[in-house]
Design brief:
Length: 209
């Protein structure tokens, strides 16, 4: 069994976690290039590498911090022939480029989610996978954990209302503005958004007649 499969078996112990991984696998498996916002910890990254294995597909991990878990993603990806790159920095500064999928799992606040998705969505061809929609669905992570909202708002680059907003309200705000997107699946901590109409070469040029 590959290192990736062994790692998945070791970290996904509950039935809900296994089912969540299977759903991510189903949608991510339809993608060639995926960007992961919030990579440290490497749980979702490992699931993505498993889904992307073969056909020289590509994963880019994004996080404010790199550590041994982000390093482990690079090693795992290499072992199964997935191209992997780590980009260290704030998601709001991540360079725009086309991708098939985005997995979002940073500091769970509806305002931060909305800001990132609203900026990235025109470049995403297929799916947006959002984690944390159950634990922080109604109250953001900062609200639930009673963090200093002014400090969190500065760190996230959103106003205090956005820092306090729950993930479900963040998704609703995104879908209300980006009417070409719809929620296609929800299970436990995971919500999947998809395009109503599949996109082809939407941003960088039209397909030739
Ligand atoms: C919940 S953890 C990610 C867990 C990981 N997806 C997993 O499954 O193991 C959240 C991560 O998001 C990162 N993060 C939070 N806000 C961020 C931002 N604005 N830009 C980039 N990374 C951010 C944190 O440094 C942290 O490592």
């Amino acid at each position: 069994m590959s290192d990736v499969k062994n790692r998945i078996n070791a970290i996904l112990t509950s039935e809900a976690a296994k089912q969540t991984a299977a759903i991510i696998n189903k949608f991510a498996g339809q993608c060639d290039t995926i960007v992961e916002f919030g990579s440290r910890g490497a749980v979702s990254g490992t699931i993505l590498i498993d889904a992307l294995t073969g056909r020289k597909r590509r994963l880019i991990g994004v996080d404010l911090v790199s550590d041994e878990t982000t390093d482990s993603l690079a090693k795992m990806a290499e072992s199964v022939g997935v191209s992997y790159q780590f980009w260290r920095g704030h998601t709001s500064q991540y360079p725009l480029h086309e991708m098939d999928g985005l997995l979002w799992d940073t500091f769970h606040a509806g305002g931060a989610l909305f800001m990132d998705l609203d900026r990235m969505a025109p470049y995403i061809q297929k799916y947006i996978m959002v984690l944390g929609v159950m634990s922080f669905g109604e109250l953001s992570e900062a609200s639930a954990k009673k963090f200093d909202m002014a400090a969190v708002s500065r760190e996230l680059g959103v106003d205090e209302t956005g820092a306090a907003l729950g993930m479900k309200a963040g998704i609703a705000k995104f879908l209300a503005k980006n009417t070409d997107w719809v929620q296609v699946h929800e299970f436990a901590e995971l919500a999947i958004l998809g395009r109503k109409v599949p996109a082809t070469s939407r941003v960088f040029g039209k397909t030739k007649a």
